[in-house]
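Lecture notes, continued. The same structure-token format from the folding unit now serves as the input rather than the output. Read the line below as a description of shape only.
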């Protein structure tokens, strides 16, 4: 039962015949994961939190940078160089203190997915690369957990509600897309807050419809939108009987490292004592930021972040520095 304060808080949603008190109760019992809390994930997790989703799990290994702030709306200027997971947690707890938020500054790997996402009801895509999406797709097939695929760049966006075996999996219709191309394309295309917010609203609406027992409109359909013309197209996507991911959703080809254009992220697969890290490598580097969940250093143009959960992120890295830091932390 909702108490009087929550009844007042959710008053306008309770009035909606599609939601009502029962819908709010169902959302309060739901557990939703947002993987990737950049632009898309910022908007989506805020909408989910304000709609009273009882438990939110966020996975995001990156740290906040100045160029994020115009669209990654969970982050304030004062959060620059903090791990995004920590800043997102702080913000969401202030917006919605009545919900349970868990934010993990970890790289998405088979290990971290199995550790943190096994009991979620649905996964929302806030990712910026295809290899991580394929990993989420495999996890979704293995555990029968629905996944709202979403990609955004410039004015354009793609969304589909994936829930195999009832629907095709992501790899039935977008197979073997090469991140060398996808990440480079999105980087060159750029990204803007209104497309991100628009796509986030659609993915959250699909998720909430599912959670309250309505039918998601993009089940088995791919929505292809372009805000230059406001006339989205829809494509029916079909299960591919030859799809190897559907037949055998293995994790074999997913490494515990991620190489972006100028970022390397490594899952060290162990918890880290941050004070110990500062002792070990703090002498050679400049300590930029010490948060609850991680610590960030710099050396010249290189930025190095280490999270409590064992994620090492290095931006503008030079090869020797990665090896040097790894050996000092892991010794
Ligand atoms: Zn498939």
């Amino acid at each position: 039962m909702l108490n009087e304060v929550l009844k007042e808080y959710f008053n306008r949603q309770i009035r909606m015949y599609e939601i009502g008190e029962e819908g709010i109760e169902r959302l309060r019992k739901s557990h939703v994961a947002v993987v990737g809390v950049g632009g898309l994930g910022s908007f989506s997790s805020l909408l989910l939190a304000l709609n009273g989703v009882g438990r939110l799990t966020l996975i995001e290994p990156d740290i906040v940078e100045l160029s994020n702030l115009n669209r990654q709306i969970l982050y304030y200027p004062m959060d620059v160089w903090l791990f995004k997971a920590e800043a997102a947690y702080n913000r969401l707890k202030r917006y919605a203190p009545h919900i349970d938020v868990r934010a993990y500054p970890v790289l998405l790997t088979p290990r971290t997915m199995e550790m943190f996402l096994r009991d979620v009801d649905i996964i929302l895509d806030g990712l910026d690369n295809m290899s991580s999406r394929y990993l989420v797709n495999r996890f979704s097939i293995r555990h029968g957990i629905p996944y709202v695929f979403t990609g955004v760049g410039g004015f354009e966006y793609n969304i589909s509600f994936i829930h195999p075996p009832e629907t095709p999996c992501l790899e039935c219709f977008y197979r073997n897309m090469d991140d060398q191309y996808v990440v480079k394309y999105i980087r060159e295309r750029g990204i803007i807050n209104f497309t991100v917010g628009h796509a986030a609203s659609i993915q959250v609406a699909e998720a909430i419809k599912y959670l309250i027992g309505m039918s998601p409109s993009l089940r088995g359909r791919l929505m292809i939108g372009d805000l230059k013309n406001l006339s989205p197209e829809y494509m029916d996507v079909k299960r591919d009987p030859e799809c190897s991911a559907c037949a055998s959703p293995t994790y074999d080809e997913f490494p515990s490292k991620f190489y972006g254009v100028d970022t390397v992220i490594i899952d060290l697969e162990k918890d880290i004592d941050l004070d110990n890290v500062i002792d070990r490598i703090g002498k050679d580097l400049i300590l930029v930021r010490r948060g609850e969940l991680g610590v960030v250093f710099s050396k010249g143009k290189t930025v190095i972040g280490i999270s409590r959960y064992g994620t090492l992120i290095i931006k503008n890295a030079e090869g020797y520095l990665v090896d040097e830091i790894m050996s000092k932390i892991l010794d």
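Point for the exam: Residues 267 and 311 are 5 Å apart (CA to CA).
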